[in-house]
Every structure is written in C-alpha cells, then in structure tokens.
Amino acid sequence: MTYEVDHRKPRPKRRGRRIVLTLVSVVAVIVVGALVAGMWYLNSLSSAYEDNAQTFEESFPEEEGRPVKAEDDESINILLLGSDENGGSGESEDLPRVPQGGRSDTMMLMHVPSDRDSVQIMSIPRDLWVEVPGQGQHKINAALSLGGLPLTIDTIESLFDARIDHVAAVDMLGFTGLVDSLGGVTVNSSYDQPFTTAEDFTFQPGEQEMTSEEALSFVRHRQSFPDGDLQRVRNQQAFIQAVIDQTVTPSNLSNPGRVRDLVETFSPHVIVDDTLDSGAVASLGWNLRGAVNNVDFFTVPTGESSYSDDGQWIFYQDEQAMADISEALADSTLDEYAASR
C-alpha cells in the first residue's frame, strides 16, 4: 500500500474532544483508572476537555493485512508517540512531541492484558533497525516521516505481529505541567554516576526531588551516557513512574476539584485517535482501577550496535527477544515477560 504524509495540523473534532480522561497517554490510562473510580463526577471531568483535546485526522492503515486478534483475546495495545518535528534530537527537544510528520523520537507500546490486573509499558528504541513496509530498512522512528501514523502503526504491527488498538501522543510539557501542579516530583535515577545536563542541572544516582525544569532536562539528556538513548529511555520511564506515583494518591483522588485541576493541566497536551472516545476510555479506566500499583516498564532488548550502509548509528534487533515479545503479546503474558527482564 502507498503512504502519503499529511503535514497539516490536525483539526480538533468535537467527538474526540469529549474524551473524559485523555490522560490515556503513558500516565494516561493508569491515572485515569483511578480517577474514574469517582464516576459521579465523570461529566464534570468530560467538560474540562471540551475545548482542549484533539484527535488525529488519520491514524490507522488499511484493514487488509493487519493482525487479527483471537476471539477470546481482550487485551488492548495503545501506541504512545512523540515526535522530534520542530526540534532535532538531543538537548533542544521537548519530548514527546505530538507527531505531525516528523520522526517519532519517543515510542512506547502500552499493553493492557485481558485480565486488566496490570499494565506493561514497553519502550521501543528509536534507533532500532527494522523493515518499514514498502520503504525498505530504516530506523523505526523514520516511519512517521515516511508515511505518517498509518505507516508507523503498520511498521510496529509487522514487527511484533500484534494489533494496535489505539494511538495517543502527549507533549512532555503536559507532564511538566503536572509536576508544577504537584509542587515537584521525586524521581529515582538509575544511572550509577552523577551527570550534568546542558541546562547545568546535576543529577545524582538514586532518588531526588525535581522541579518541572529539572525534570524536563532530566528526560531530554543523553549526551553523558555510553548507551545514549537507551539510558534516556530509562530516565523517561523513571520520570513517568514518579508522576504516576505522586498523582494517584488518596489525597488527590478524593478531591474532585483537585482531579479536575490536574485534568485541565494535562489535556491540552494530548492528541488521540478518534476511536478512543469517552465511552471507551471510561470503561477501560474503570476496569484498570486496580492496576494503578502494578505498572511494569521495560525496553525492547537490542542486538549489536553499528553503522548502517548510509552512515546512521543503529541497533540491530535481538531476534530471540522479538520472538518472545511477539508470543507474549499474543498470549497476553507480557507481564511475565516484563517480570523476567
């Protein structure tokens, strides 16, 4: 099939704007699961999105040839994207950006198992060398610029032989807004040495308090790390986990006004596919209310690193890991795979 990129800014659709909890991007479904436990103020939260949330004009590839789930498979896969359009890779970018035609610089697959007892968030390294359908071999983050969201979804579905049910994107500034609302966030840095970013913030190993400016610098930085983007992915995961932990607290969830404030802070930075309507999100959130404390983060294992024939730095695939992940997604046992990492 042929993919053409539409570089026009996506137009808001009223159908998509009434998404009661578009926190459904990384922090999203997890936080939503707890928030909608208070279903009695659901309509109030919905109105908070009326003028903010947007939907993609075009999301999914043509149906022919896409993976088909087994009849008893009730798992849900949500692709989470950020783009480096309007900013290059490295210190200057606000990650993840809402993709509109650039390269997808941040890419995560959120898997909700059939039993709804947990959530797995799998980061996909942007430098992973893959077959982009109809385009040959490229870094996986090139699919967005080569064919927009449909080709990006086609590429990931082909890679893991797993169907993508929804797609969402969130600007990292949405998370930093939450950090301001929370009065700071405590993030656990997994890097075993201190490092200093271009903004002149120094981070130590282990837990530390961060302002929104410090947190944004923390998730952008990669120059200090021998494995570059892989450690940055780990930092992003640590930050997201911290925001989840400090947003979904009894004091926040028991205060409708507080929840509404958090929702209004986050929603302008989210864009989703038009199948992720308020009913779908509310239903999923309610079913996930017990999974808030059972979120697993991991990164797709890679093979050797090298240069491509055209001089790009790339990671080759770990073929066994790809096969294991594909099987776990098909069996809805990705939680077991994540626990083994």
UniProtKB/TrEMBL annotation:
Read off the InterPro entries from this record: LytR/CpsA/Psr_CW_biosynth (IPR050922), LytR_CpsA_psr (IPR004474)
The organism's taxonomy opens as: Bacteria, Bacillati, Actinomycetota, Actinomycetes, Micrococcales
Pfam families on file = LytR_cpsA_psr
Matches recorded under NCBIfam families: lytR_cpsA_psr
Instruction: Identify the domain of life.
Output: Bacteria
Q: Which organism is it from?
A: Nesterenkonia jeotgali
Ranges that cross the membrane: 20-42
Protein name listed in UniProt: LCP family protein required for cell wall assembly
Q: Where is this region: Disordered?
A: 82-102
